[in-house]
Design a protein that fits this description.
mainly alpha, 83 residues
């Protein structure tokens, strides 16, 4: 795989990798437990936005991903409380 993508550096686990694993966990919790676990996803997305604001090498796609996650989790919470 490294030859195919021409990767020459050693893999380094980063904060975005941890957040991706936590987002996958959030989706699994929503599917297994229900919409109440969307609070976890909302907190994770807000934490991601705060973390991206403090990152000097931030990109617009970071904000878009966490903003979309905030909207999606707010939607799930509205289904839980208002539907």
């Amino acid at each position: 795989m490294k030859k195919y993508f021409n990767i020459s550096t050693h893999y380094k686990f980063e904060m975005n990798d941890l957040r991706a694993i936590m987002m996958i966990t959030n989706v699994a919790l929503i599917m297994l437990i229900g919409f109440a676990s969307a609070w976890f996803g909302l907190a994770l997305a807000v934490f991601g936005i705060i973390k991206d604001c403090n990152n000097p090498t931030r990109h617009i796609n970071d904000f878009l991903i966490h903003g979309a996650s905030c909207v999606l989790n707010c939607y799930f919470l509205s289904l839980l409380y208002f539907a």
